[in-house]
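mind reviewing this stuff:

——
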Amino acid sequence: MAMFRKYISLFWAFARASFAADVEYRVNFGMRILTDIFYYISQIAVFEVLFRQTETLGGWSIGHARIFLGILFVVDAVWMILFSENLDRFSEKVRRGDLDLLLAKPVDSQFIMSFQKIGTAFIGNLMIAVGWLVWSLSVFDGDVPLSRLLWLVVLIPCGVAIMYMNRFMFSVTALVLTRAENLQHLWHQFHKLGTRPDTMYPIWLRYMVLSVLPVAFIASVPARAILDAPDYRLIAGAVVMAFLCILLTKIVWKFALKHYSSASS
């Protein structure tokens, strides 16, 4: 319990320092929110245009797609707040020698590398994402019981954990390859598979996004859990997958550190 309180206190200290740094540049603070608003609009526009040509896509209606996007936006916003700025600059930190300093700290190095900079500017994005999800649920033609919505309390954190693992696995290559910026672009291509409902994909690709590259757990599985009769095996699979993903990052992190050459060496 003392260790848990220590890391909560450390996280809170990171959040306060990050907020103080973010508000120093208020224009940049607002521009981050505005940039993601355009991202949301582009994602919404894709589905709105598609459903003008057809009533269903992969068995989903426009109402299903809007709720799917709402969940995707919420997961993405939480991801941006917690991890984006840290993992996107991972390679840069390794080259500058920042990791050398962090390894000397009396805390878990993976924790501090993952949470050192909290994207407080993206809290506004989270509010917009939640607002879109609430609106989508309110105009949905079908019935979504409150009991199903409670599954999001479990499934959204699972989606964030899986998204973290996917990004982390590409970022950590910087410990071995040093200059791995081009490899990082692959993550965005794999992540795009999770920004579309998995029902749109052929069966072999659906299996892939539910196992090898579990991006379907980011939004597709949570959306199906609240829109359809809950598949408890799939929900349990999301929890197990999230646990295994976090465990995998720990294993890979320790392995990569053994092959890491200090920036000062």
